[in-house]
Design goal:
With about 120 residues, the chain is α/β, with parallel strands linked by helices. The chain has a single domain, classed as Rossmann fold, CATH 3.40.50. Helices cover about 45% and strands about 10% of the residues. It has 5 helices and 3 strands; from the N terminus they run H-H-E-H-E-H-E-H. It has a 3-stranded parallel beta sheet, with helices on both faces. Helix 4 links the parallel strand 2 and strand 3. Helix 1 packs across helix 5 and helix 2 runs parallel beside helix 3.
């Protein structure tokens, strides 16, 4: 979810290049409605968006499905991206990225979050 159409397009292309299925939304309200209809394993959400901002969206996603992995992204505005990303971490984001970021970094974080955990081996 991001209201920046060009960044959203770039993220869609990047995820599809690694064979991810992608559902895109221009704001948190649209994204949350889509997630409610068809939950996904991973959500990337901007923090500052119209109609439903990212922290509110993040909290709603985690309430609906605590297992969903969420990557929060932010360019900051006046406070700086670190402030918003720290807030996102405290709200339950599984990972955060400050804008601008490389597509490869986003994909690496997504793949790490979706990687199944290895079971413990008994001695």
């Amino acid at each position: 979810m991001d209201d920046d159409v060009e960044l959203l397009r770039q993220m869609i292309c990047a995820f599809r290049s690694r064979d991810f299925e992608v559902v895109a939304a221009l704001d948190g309200a649209i994204g949350l409605r889509s997630f409610t209809r068809e939950p996904t394993a991973l959500v990337v959400t901007d923090i500052i968006m119209p109609n439903r901002e990212g922290i509110e969206t993040l909290l709603a996603l985690k309430k609906l499905r605590p297992s969903v992995k969420v990557i929060a992204i932010s360019g900051g505005l006046r406070l700086g991206p670190g402030d918003f990303l720290d807030l996102a971490r405290h709200a339950g984001a599984d990972a955060v990225l400050a804008k601008p970021f490389r597509s490869s970094d986003l994909l690496d974080v997504a793949e790490r979050l979706l990687r199944p955990e290895c079971p413990a081996v008994a001695p």
